[in-house]
Amino acid sequence: MTELELKYGCNPNQKPSRIFMEDGSDLPITVLNGRPGYINFLDAFNGWQLVKELKKATGLPAATSFKHVSPAGAAVGLPLSEIEAKIYWVDDLGELTPLASAYARARGADRMSSFGDFISLSDVCDECTARIIKREVSDGVIAPGYTDEALAILKAKKNGNYNVIQIDENYVPAEIERKQVYGITFEQGRNELKIDDELMANIVTDNKEIPESAKIDLAIALITLKYTQSNSVCYVKGGQAIGIGAGQQSRIHCTRLAGSKADNWYLRQAPQVLGLPFRSDIKRADRDNTIDLYIGEEYMDVLADGQWEKFFTEKPAVFTREEKRAWLDGLTDVSLGSDAFFPFGDNIERAHKSGVKYIAQPGGSVRDDNVIETCNKYGMAMCFTGIRLFHH
């Protein structure tokens, strides 16, 4: 199959639409179920590159949850703690396979953004992973293969219309890539930069210690940023992205956005949130929305009289700003990657509030000294990679 006709492009009025190989060769994918659209394929192909590279860099199965051509979450297949299993809504599934753990982490880091995601998996999708996918609101999945049991589960999703794509894991794209904007063709070499420990060798802060676990987290951050719409910043802890700020015009806005998502990830683990007395008839997505409001500044939207009764069996206490700050002080040893240099120390100040201790960024700002000084103030270790990771 050298081309695949699509229903429409980014929007229903954009027709005709197709994907095809300019050289006349076969497409490296097979649609096993459903009818993926233009944006589905953009998410699928970007996500596949991300998880393939994560698997190669770490040796662990990887998964990502994509929305609108940027990852909402990305992770490798490390075991979940009891609390993580609970906040990702998989504590009833027993022991998970490594691939299932990777997707539970990728989906669970920012469940609000992952709602209706497109999933990319580095390994053959197994039954355990398919069972997690089955219970979530999602548009589709791409993987190098599927077990018979997994495929049967996925084909039954969305009344038989769930998008399931198989990609040839041995496919190698051309070294030159092209796209058109306003009828004008752009051409560039593919970004084949390898993310490894060598990029983290130039440590410019007083603290020169970046442990192996942090190097893995920094690699996850940088690989995630490589496929995230710029400007972008990524917070990582324990083998998973916990906050991604994508597509912001200002670097500090990236840092704040990603930091607030990292904070929300950690706040969901607080006893006040884990103990929320939800009504038994509240669906998973509605619980996510309610938790997001409860831990934010709009908490009265779910705690006001006449409102709380819709969600809870009894009225929860307010999770005060002081209590939240005290809990967030327990978030430590977070790694942070940036796709371009930090122009001011304010980014480091904001990162510190979310427990960041290790940073990888290109360097090269006229205010590098100020950024380094701010890191030194908090005992952070920061490396200059010398490499920018813009993606558009």
Question: Overview of this structure, please?
Answer:
35% of the residues lie in helices and 20% in strands. The model has no long low-confidence stretch (mean pLDDT 96). The chain has three domains: 170 residues, Cytidine Deaminase, domain 2 (3-Layer(aba) Sandwich), CATH 3.40.140.20; 148 residues, Cytidine Deaminase, domain 2 (3-Layer(aba) Sandwich); 48 residues, no CATH class. It has a six-stranded mixed sheet with strand order 3-8-7-6-4-5. A five-stranded mixed sheet has the order 12-11-13-14-15, with helices on both faces. The protein has 392 residues and is an alpha/beta fold. Helix 5 packs parallel to helix 6. A hairpin with a 2-residue loop joins strand 11 and strand 12.
Overall CATH architecture of the largest domain:
3-Layer(aba) Sandwich
- Radius of gyration from the alpha-carbon trace, in angstroms: 21 Å
Helicity, as a percent range = 25-40%
Structural class: alpha/beta
Compute the number of strand runs: 15
Task: Give a short synopsis of this structure.
This protein has 14 helices and 15 strands.
Key terms:
six-stranded mixed sheet; Cytidine Deaminase, domain 2; five-stranded mixed sheet; 14 helices; 392 residues; 3 domains
Write the layout of secondary structure elements.
Blueprint: E1 3-5, E2 18-20, E3 29-33, H1 38-58, E4 62-67, E5 70-76, H2 82-87, H3 98-108, H4 111-114, E6 117-121, H5 127-135, E7 138-143, H6 148-155, E8 163-167, E9 176-181, E10 184-189, H7 212-226, E11 232-237, E12 240-246, H8 251-267, H9 271-274, H10 284-294, H11 300-303, H12 321-328, E13 334-338, H13 346-353, E14 356-361, H14 368-377, E15 381-384
Parallel strand pairs: 6-7, 7-8, 13-14, 14-15
Antiparallel strand pairs: 1-2, 3-8, 4-5, 4-6, 9-10, 11-12, 11-13
